[in-house]
Amino acid sequence: MTNTSLLSKRRNIFIGLFLVIITLVVYWQVGNHEFVNFDDNRYVTENRFVTSGLTLESIFWAFSFKDKEGSYWQPLTWLSHMLDCQLFGLRPGRHHLANLFFHLVNTFLLFWVLNRCTGMCWRSAFVAVLFGLHPINVESVAWVAARKNVLSTLFWMLTLLAYVYYAKRPCLTRYMLTFLCFTAGLMAKPMLVTLPFVLLLLDFWPLNRLQLGQFGGDDAARKKQVDFLGCRVPHGYFIVLEKAPFLMLSFVLIHINLSSLEPHGGIISPETVPVSLRIANALVSYIVYIGKMLWPLKLAPLYPYPEHVPVMQTVGAGFLLMCVSAAALGAVRRRPYLLVGWLWYLGTLVPVSGLVQVGLWPSMADRFAYVPLIGLYILIAWGLPEIFLRWRHTKIWLAATATVLLTILMVTTWQQIQFWKNSVTLFEHALKVTSNNSLAHFNLGAALSKQGRIDEAVGHYSESLRIQPYYLSAHYNLGAVRTRQGRVDEAIEHYLTVLHINPDYAAAHTNLAIALIGKGKIEGAIYHFQEALRIKPNDVNAKNNLKNALRDQQKGQ
User: Fold this and answer.
1) Distance of CA 532 to the CA centre of its chain
2) 458: domain range?
3) What sections of the protein cross the membrane (predicted)?
């Protein structure tokens, strides 16, 4: 190794460590954060398989396709949560720091991959800074339930790194390592189904394995051939064919996840949310994400899904996307990074665009942009120097811009992280920056109720129901609060509403039965305890209460 290459390697390591340190400084405060009542209970605190740690039963559950209550098939994500519980119990700060660890590694790997691909260390570092410190990524790091995001992205980056080494010197071992990392990523979150598409983009730029002429009229490029399964195949087609195993595995995982979600009613039907509304919202969201990247204010954990999208917004968003795509395509020979960065952004957002919707689907989500915005960061990092090259004192302008941007990112991200301190701060902020947010009112009500602030909780539950009158969980929780207040008639009314919409809501049957006992209606209570046990035969609470109710009935006779 020459002195120059040794110095270059040391410089790259120093830059990578610097990126990790400044990101760590900004995010370290998450170690003092609590769990929030937004899926943290389902993923960790109230999940008996997770809280029991790495037991044989829990590991089997993680890999099984059943009993996930409509969650994706994500065994590695479940195992990571189990490992946290095994090591740290339910100390929330340690779980948050585990998320931060993955984000730090992702930031370092992104820099390493881009620098390895391009040899442009400062531009690669700029991309990594944007990724590591952009406020829109706070949700993926500061939310324990977003573990699947940071963990799957770790395997995304490892897949890219392995692929870059494979592309530099192809061999079966490196190819299999790439495929193994990709497989692990799919087992953390199905978001990686778009990664084969990204590998093709990297083949075009910056790896230069794929040229446009290999599929067109360039005879020299088209005549370049390689051996594939005993046949001579044009090099361009081979580059595409080597992605076939990745694509096939992606389709298998898509099928597995759709199959596991459908029995639980996790997939939202077109009758509930029309396809036309999904397309309109997706087009507008593509533009809104760009806006949030450029002006990252009013970030929230959930953006309510619109009842309709104005036609002019839809048409305008579609037209703007087509114009940018046409411009990137027109500049492809001189500035290939524009097309690659733009298509990275467009392509990786497709799985979370809402065309297929699962569960309580938002209009958009900050966590959805964690990987897609890397494409736009690349576009910016390679585009800005070309703009400044036309000015005098280029290096001074670039350094000044980077310094100002770094300072702004550190301050705004620090502030955004503070909103995730606990459920109350999170959803109070969400209500300030969004409107008609039924879920935010509900979750804030639940958090306030837990703190004993009952009157405030009732106000937020009521507002949640004003926005969404058939929100079952809000009716259920409001019934529980009214029972505690001694307003049993109102509680019964809310439980009956829940059961009218969903007759198989076991907990509502149990709570309704308890409320009926308070009104002296033993026979009705027995019926609802029995219904609860029909739905959940192992419900200990319902069993014990049923025994007591039957005993009281016998005494009354």
Assistant:
1) 34
2) 423-556
3) 12-30, 97-114, 126-144, 150-167, 179-202, 244-261, 273-291, 311-332, 339-361, 367-384, 396-414
